Amino acid sequence: MKNEELIEVLGELTQRMEESDLLGSGKARLVRTVHELQVDFASLDVPKRFDEVYRSLISKGRKLLTYYRVDADSKELQDKTKYYVGYLHAAYGDFTGQVKNIQPFYRLFLLCSILFMILSPMYLTPIFSIIFIIPIALAMKGVKQRIRSGYWLAMLIVPVSIMTAVMWVRNGVYVLGNFSQAVAQNMESSGMGQTFSTVLTVACPILGSVLMVLSILLLIQGYKVRKLFV
């Protein structure tokens, strides 16, 4: 399916944006982004199964054009333009099949969240971990629905996961040189037997290393899919 109608809307939008004085300091970047999207869509045949999304792009674009008036509210105009640009990026991801990258991102997020919830209470207190239950749940829902706030909530797990992982990697370095003392300390703090304490002493630093790798992968994958959320 050809895109002449959408290209025409984006061309007119670019012209209106260039003529407007209401887009603030981000005007040049927004104009450049819309122009780049216009070029991208011009070289793309939209699959017929996305006809509804394509029509929505045209409808939303025409509606946005009506807001480009001399008496328009500057902040409202900027917000609506940024939202439409985000919608264009997400739709382009649909049309080109990039949306499949969200699934690996979601899986990495879940794995990081699980390991974070397991490992963080031992260093950062259980309360700190409990605080993240609601953001993690909201992120799960938001990522599935491709909502931008869900994406940012998912990315919030990266810094705290890296922080937790670093603590356990450092603990692993200590364990390598002081294994017997580390086991004894775990026996004393947990009140469990030697076998359980030994497993805990070995497993947690290993899981911490895994969490570090997964957090870095999540950061990379998150960067790749950042434009697929609205």
Task: Describe the structure in your own words.
This protein folds into two domains: 4-96; 102-228. Helices cover 80% and strands 0% of the residues. The protein is built from twelve helices and no strands. The chain is elongated.
Keywords:
12 helices, mainly alpha, 230 residues, transmembrane helix
Radius of gyration: 24 Å
Please indicate the count of domains. 2
Overall geometry comes to elongated
How can the largest sheet be summarized? none
Oligomer: single chain
* N- and C-termini, Cα separation: 24 Å
Structural class: mainly alpha
Average pLDDT score:
93
User: What is the number of E strands?
Assistant: 0
The amount of helix comes to over 70%
Keywords: Membrane, Transmembrane, Transmembrane helix
Transmembrane segments: 108-138, 150-169, 196-220
